[in-house]
Amino acid sequence: METTSNSTDSFDRIQDGDNIYIIFDPKRKWLVTVKSGKQFHSHKGFFNYDDIIGKKFGTIVLTNKSTKLAILRPIPIDYLRQISHSSQIIYEKDAGAILLYGGIFPGAKVIETGTGSGALTAIIANFVKPHGQVYTYENRENAYLTASKNIALLGLNEYVSLKNKDALEGYDESDVDSVVLDLGDPCLLIEQAYIALKPSGVMSIFVPTYNQVERVYHELLKYPFIEIKAIELIEREIQLKDNAIRPKTWMMVGHTGFLIFARKLQTDKESVKHSQKEEIGENESS
Amino acid sequence: METTSNSTDSFDRIQDGDNIYIIFDPKRKWLVTVKSGKQFHSHKGFFNYDDIIGKKFGTIVLTNKSTKLAILRPIPIDYLRQISHSSQIIYEKDAGAILLYGGIFPGAKVIETGTGSGALTAIIANFVKPHGQVYTYENRENAYLTASKNIALLGLNEYVSLKNKDALEGYDESDVDSVVLDLGDPCLLIEQAYIALKPSGVMSIFVPTYNQVERVYHELLKYPFIEIKAIELIEREIQLKDNAIRPKTWMMVGHTGFLIFARKLQTDKESVKHSQKEEIGENESS
Amino acid sequence: METTSNSTDSFDRIQDGDNIYIIFDPKRKWLVTVKSGKQFHSHKGFFNYDDIIGKKFGTIVLTNKSTKLAILRPIPIDYLRQISHSSQIIYEKDAGAILLYGGIFPGAKVIETGTGSGALTAIIANFVKPHGQVYTYENRENAYLTASKNIALLGLNEYVSLKNKDALEGYDESDVDSVVLDLGDPCLLIEQAYIALKPSGVMSIFVPTYNQVERVYHELLKYPFIEIKAIELIEREIQLKDNAIRPKTWMMVGHTGFLIFARKLQTDKESVKHSQKEEIGENESS
Amino acid sequence: METTSNSTDSFDRIQDGDNIYIIFDPKRKWLVTVKSGKQFHSHKGFFNYDDIIGKKFGTIVLTNKSTKLAILRPIPIDYLRQISHSSQIIYEKDAGAILLYGGIFPGAKVIETGTGSGALTAIIANFVKPHGQVYTYENRENAYLTASKNIALLGLNEYVSLKNKDALEGYDESDVDSVVLDLGDPCLLIEQAYIALKPSGVMSIFVPTYNQVERVYHELLKYPFIEIKAIELIEREIQLKDNAIRPKTWMMVGHTGFLIFARKLQTDKESVKHSQKEEIGENESS
Fold it and tell me: Between A and C, how many residue pairs show a Cβ–Cβ distance under 8 A?
């Protein structure tokens, strides 16, 4: 049998400084950093981090109260759930669509505005690494500081350039592969996003209301974009219970927002606006 | 202004052998490979590939009939739409969820069964490269040959190990980060998937019916999995039309399937089954 | 055993002039009127109406080609599906919500604008009879004639006052229990609808786009309405198939429209507008 | 102008013994009975019922604390929301579908099992009156007593026959137009429901899980039913707020249940089962 990860064996074992995801049950989970010589404490008891250092991720540890805790290696999605909710949240389903529709790939250069708590930043950073970079702008100092802490905690400093700066003053980067806008009034940044994108690059915009969908759409039409598309994703969790499979009765999140995507054409504005209306990129409706 | 991609400038220009995405309008698009000395033909006229070689992606080309065609660099999602529909299709929304919930990341080792047309294979390969690998199993020779052609066409051979082999005979790999099952009866492969996964690794299973959700759930309970979760994603496209913003009237895809996720615990089976029922990983319902 | 319908036994037997619903399979169904001395013809063969007169609804008849056809008594929903699609259609799910949220009941006086093909008219008429009445306005002569034919065919003339008249010129009725608006620009009729409603009466408005939801909402705020509410209903048909229960893969109708409801307060406009904003009927959002 | 309701003018004025719906704001509403000589009390103050007797529904009354309360005539839907939640609830959207797909009409004879709190009973009674009747079975004495109280409170005694009796012992009625099953195990009652229905009558079954959808479907196939259909309705409330129209962020009800409908054929069982499989009523899936 071919072992696919011999070279990364140490990666599979818990080390001092690793982030770990501790699970007691579906409602009690903690994302923490292993600190040799210290302890993890909860109302379920405590254990010494040294007891798990060197063990494989996926192990189970007993607390002093004989409570069993599972130790998992966090995947990016876990960050989303644990990062402090200091700002509007992009949900997993929406983050997944941004990865796919938004032209994100390992090695990509991505601009994000605003950073918020850094949750989406962390997701994207995990998918552009090791050679890509997320340039993320946040003009509110509080959010900037929270995001800085979160990105550092997650060990993503290398892949994230976090800027406490108003994107309205212009982006520092150009020729990026993807721009992601998730802020109060994305219309104000569409021109700058168009300029910063490389031709054929993709813009993703998250907005909560229909009014914003309409305004963003009208703003996008002013520039040579193509493949303009808007979607909404609805996630239903399915109850897994013996002889009682069904959508969960209580779905707490009824609506997060709409996602709008567009791709940049490399052309002078006038010629494209003309072509767009007549021949290319008509957004036909059913 | 910091130019983020000086070193990749040639990457931004169309070259012989590149895949390009040609767009006439939302319903007429083609994913083709640039061949110096040859022509692209459609009912909208033709153009010489040499006319676009050296231009930037995002350009517009005129056919001999003066039709304007946009030339984009394809993003992975475009592959999904263009790959031949020879097999059950994983949809974009579902692929996005598999990336996020399924523990995929750049550098990951991923087993997929079955390959089908290679559409999901291509998506995943694009997100594990450059250092990761997708090991994909397909026992039907026709599908295998189609997928081989598709993966080669997309230039992903380096990141994909495509096997015309029945996964029931066992996986060749071990200690993989993620296993994705999308085949008729995934229950048959759950034990082997458990074995092949590294501890803390994630399994993603796509099934179209509720009966399969139930069977998969019961099969998963036989092994030390945690964080078992099932979801359904519903995608609604929003009509972008002046003064008439609304969900599109005709949504062709009413249901694709359900996604089930689970993470492997590293423990002897008995101890975990015990702990799972009593304390860890209860899948509580609302 | 108590027989609940002795007195209506003849009602249970097929008579000359009855509407019947003939079913061959889920895709081939016909809503026709029994005509003694004549025949029903289809590509599945023919039968004489006299062969079924006197039989109970629910019987099965053989055509000359030995094809079995089921003969059902139509329920209102069947009319909706069979009435010619000459105009925007209100769907079953939306009609059901209008009955419940729209203040319809046996004996109710209801104004409807516009009539369209008469499909919703027929549904409502079936639920206000025998003592209620639907006053329905249609200014397009073609639609008026189609609806007249449909209402007569369904034997509902007694419960429907169909008017080929522009509702903008004012309603002939006052103190009605319910007003249902389903036309291009419902905002134009909200004042007249307010006037025609009895205090505590309910208005139901069907609109396809979000832009209209917003305009209708703003128009409603100009009058003393309370309990203003907007909903969208999404209907998923479930595939019933052995061991393959799931939402149907192809859901043809992705969106029909939004329903807005409001109830009339009996008060002078100024006092209510004041109270509405400060204390009553605030449409709080989550 | 034609006044449609001269004869019912007294019906429009509030009288002693009427049920009224008192609204302070969207979250504080009360369904109560007017009692001459008594007072309505809430934390917003009190008023004397005699102050509103003789006024039109839709009026506004001031409490001793100068709070404005709107007085509406309740529509059936209001009962649903106010009736005590002592049992599984059928939601408005589902009740609307049962009215339309379930063959309910003014004058209909309907059997319901179980009664629960009487909420659906009340809805149906309101749509079969004045000449129809709901025969409703409830074997749990507590629920029976609650429902009796609710039905009496709503003034529906004349249209409801409420029975504290186990339907498994057989229905007292025959030749009914419609049977509605909403209880733990509807499969146990399908044969009796088939017997009680008149030919061409309709059965409606509400079940919360997919497992039950499958079991009910298999049970229905044992009898000569046609037009078997299952649906799920999803209701999204739309936030009505200036410049912020969108689906509400928090949708509390993610899933109520599935509705299954079937119509009775009048034939001996064997002949129909045969025809159903070969020619009639195949439930084709997409």
Answer: 6
